Amino acid sequence: MPVDAALVDALRATAGAARRIGGANGPAWRRFLRERWGWWPPVGAARGPRIWLVCAPGGEVVQTAPLVPALRRALPDATLVLSTTNEAFLTLAARMPGLDACVFTPFDRPAPVRRALAALRPDLLVTVESAFAPVLVREARRFGATTMLASGTMTADYDRDPAWARPLRHRVFDHLDVVGVKAGDELAAFTRFGVPAARVRVLGDLRYDPSFSRVDDAERAALRARLASAADERLFVAGSLRDGEEPLVLDAYRALRDKHADLRLVLAPRFTAQAARVEHEAAARGLTVTRVSTGATPGAEVVVLDTYGDLARVYALAAVVFLGGTLVHVGAGLGQNLVEPLAHGAPVFFGPHVRRWTAITRELTAVYPGLAVGGAADLARGVLELEGAPELVAALRERARVIMARGADATTRHVDAIRDVLAGRARAA
Asked: Does domain 214-405 have CATH number 3.40.50.2000?
């Protein structure tokens, strides 16, 4: 009998939450258990369409930031609900203007999903970037909701992998009424996977929206204050580092300090549990270190950004960036989110594992091949070369601007598609 991975994950999460209920955070963990098992409070009045945005925790939540207020403006009577599976990103979503509720996504099992659907009664379920909850998508459609993929992508030629390497057992695309993809070159990938061409629409990548990356002077000052960074201080931001990358980046930074490079390192681990190891590794290299979560102090050479949801904004302060998840092979070797730092124009260094971003990295390395690095020595050498080549930095910033401009209307296209779907439902009613 095959193992039900979703059920195993649900039981593990439940056991972990149960262990924490007796502590000071008991109410939060009780809410987590209640909502993840589908016992939601009633959500949404009958004043307009009910839209449920389903996000994996991470960039999927962050990239809805421009979509939510745009939907609120276009559909003022709608009930807008966002769900995710991580408390930190749920808190981040709660700060978005325009949402009526933020809740935990139910475990991807029939009973929890049906309970949540009964509480919300959605007209439209939108899963952002990936259909990571196939049971939810299937049950929502059975419930009578229209289902849609927003800002979707066929990651790393997934459609070309052999069947045994594609553990998409629930045929989730069969239950999506609208498959909104990031780019026109993805149309063939989805149809090759069996999605009828009539269901696929090119809606663009929500992360390219100008409002996604806009950081005004007041926010810049607030971010600087959190990092204990002076207004004129130049920052080397290493974002979303995976296990094994921290020593390499710290080695590169140690070399830069030895060469008297005028940079301060902001190191953001992919998971906050890595922060203690970063502190140890930094101290072993004679570097002073401070953490944002405990109140960063001025003067430390390394600032550990050990909070969730801040990195995309901190990139706006960077003089130079290293993209994590690219020097070590993780999963399919996709790499972390390249668009987030690119949106702010700073040069972005990366390792060889960037399967998700090859089209962009080709354009960037055509301007400066040294952005592609294989280790600490390459990274230090590349940063030093750019420090002495302002014209090259300007060319990279211009290339970033051109790349980002191609998708600037993605939010408008998504809003138009959602309005079309809801209008179609109204006509059919």
From this structure: yes
